[in-house]
Design brief:
By secondary structure, the chain is α+β, with helices and mostly antiparallel strands. The protein has eleven helices and 23 strands. The protein binds adenosine-5'-triphosphate and magnesium ion.
Length: 416
């Protein structure tokens, strides 16, 4: 892909509205553009990363046999009346009226709609368990939208819902999601901890929050340096340096922001909305439910908040918009342009995604923008191709490598 054709509106200065480093860099590097408070456009760079996060999620959820669907954002108020949340959800719920004066919710979450969809269908124990999910734009009129994509009023969420005949089955699926979430966040390159929590206003019993560790987080997490023990400071008031309750390692503190949440909902919605099945003995029972969310757009920003330096973003390779940034020093030199285009083809054949900076700009500008955008590998094509060598630099290292052209692909493969 030629950079001259790929829309990357970089900014020289930090925008005034930016509140944290990832926010500054995402705006400056041309990943996102704010349209109103908490409402952003995902520009081409961010969208490519978001698609990669989504693919990781899809791959991990396929392993646990969850089926993808897509529900509407516009939800008739009647469903929210049934669950009792039309009142309870308060001002965070965005509402609208159609031309016939009928009320709608603009979906902040989909428990009501999914329960409506499965009721009367999942009507026998023989059809259970079932897990459904979607990846969709959600709307919440947050009191304080802030930190860019971290707390938006419009954001992308993966939400999943599972339906069961008994609590053992719910436990099993809940554990599978726990594992899937660990896999997803690890693959995205996130430093995170799974924290058991109380389930807030959704109701139900067990729940677990996956917290990305970052200084801009709103919660303080106590965790062990040597095991997966982690808890909210409010729940476990352990000082730094204390012995971990599980006996493994010492306690550390960190700020965290929730990137994922798994809940055992129980029968809160099925009871309110009369979604029942017939059990093995012929008795009607409320469906037992679980629900599982991931803040997809928040994950992107949390990854960037954890992976940057004084020059810009350092994208982990799994979710980088492209793998390789080719910088053509002199786009007016035919041999450099031709070389770049042949190299692009070779790299594409080797399964790499490539962005070529073909713009007529000073090399200094190209290098600093490449650092800002943060693709994992930078290859510079200049006069030295005449000597049969090429410069390769990894974004997370300071050294530059002079590599023989013939050995380039192998050199990159070793790293990637
Ligand atoms: P928070 O406590 O951060 O407000 P929540 O508990 O209200 O989040 P859930 O209803 O559990 O959020 O939604 C599932 C996931 O969606 C969250 O784990 C989070 O990653 C993400 N999310 C929630 N609200 C927002 C938002 N305003 N902007 C971006 N992502 C969000
Ligand atoms: Mg939550």
């Amino acid at each position: 892909m030629k950079q001259s054709k790929f829309f990357i509106p970089t900014l020289k200065d930090s925008p005034k509205e930016a509140e944290c480093q990832s926010h500054i860099y995402m705006l400056r590097a041309g990943y996102i553009k704010q349209i109103a408070a908490g409402i952003y456009t995902y520009l081409p760079l961010a969208l490519r990363s978001i698609k990669k996060i989504e693919q990781i999620i899809r791959a991990e959820l396929a392993k646990i046999e969850a089926a993808e669907l897509l529900m509407p954002s516009l939800q008739p108020s009647e469903l929210w009346q049934e669950s009792g949340r039309w009142q309870k959800y308060g001002d965070t719920l965005m509402r609208m009226k159609d031309r016939h004066d009928r009320d709608f919710a603009i979906g902040p979450t989909h428990e009501e709609v999914i329960t409506y969809i499965v009721r009367d269908v999942l009507n026998s124990y023989k059809k259970l368990p079932v897990t459904l999910y979607q990846i969709q734009t959600k709307f919440r009129d947050e009191l304080r939208p802030r930190f860019g994509l971290m707390r938006g009023r419009e954001f992308i969420m993966k939400d999943a819902y599972s339906f069961h005949a008994d609590t053992d089955s719910l436990d099993e699926t809940y554990q599978e999601f726990n594992q899937a979430y660990n896999n997803i966040f690890t693959r995205c390159g996130l430093k995170f901890r799974a924290v058991k929590a109380d389930s807030g206003n959704i109701g139900g019993s067990e729940s677990c929050e996956f917290m990305a560790l970052t200084d801009i987080g709103e919660d303080t997490i106590v965790y062990a340096n040597n095991s997966d023990f982690a808890a909210n400071l409010e729940v476990y008031n352990l000082p730094i340096g204390a012995k971990s309750p599980d006996g493994n390692g010492t306690i550390m503190h960190a700020k965290g922001i929730e990137v994922g949440h798994i809940f055992k909902l129980g029968t809160v919605y099925s009871e309110a909305m009369k979604a029942q099945f017939t059990d093995e003995t012929g008795v009607r029972q409320d469906l037992i439910m679980g629900c599982y969310g991931i803040g997809v757009s928040r994950v992107l920003m949390a990854v960037i908040e954890q992976n940057h330096d004084e020059f810009g973003i350092m994208m982990p390779k799994t979710i980088a918009p492209f793998d390789i940034h080719i910088i053509v020093i002199d786009p007016k030199a035919d041999n450099q342009v031709k070389f770049a285009s042949e190299l692009e083809n070779t790299l594409i054949k080797a399964q790499y995604e490539v962005l070529i900076d073909d713009r007529i700009e000073r090399p200094g500008v190209k290098f600093s923008e490449a650092d800002l955008i943060g693709l994992p590998i930078r290859i510079t094509i200049g006069k030295n191709i005449e000597k049969g060598v090429i410069e390769v630099k990894f974004r997370n290292e300071l050294v530059k490598h002079e590599v023989e052209i013939a050995k380039l692909i192998n050199f990159i493969k070793e790293y990637y």
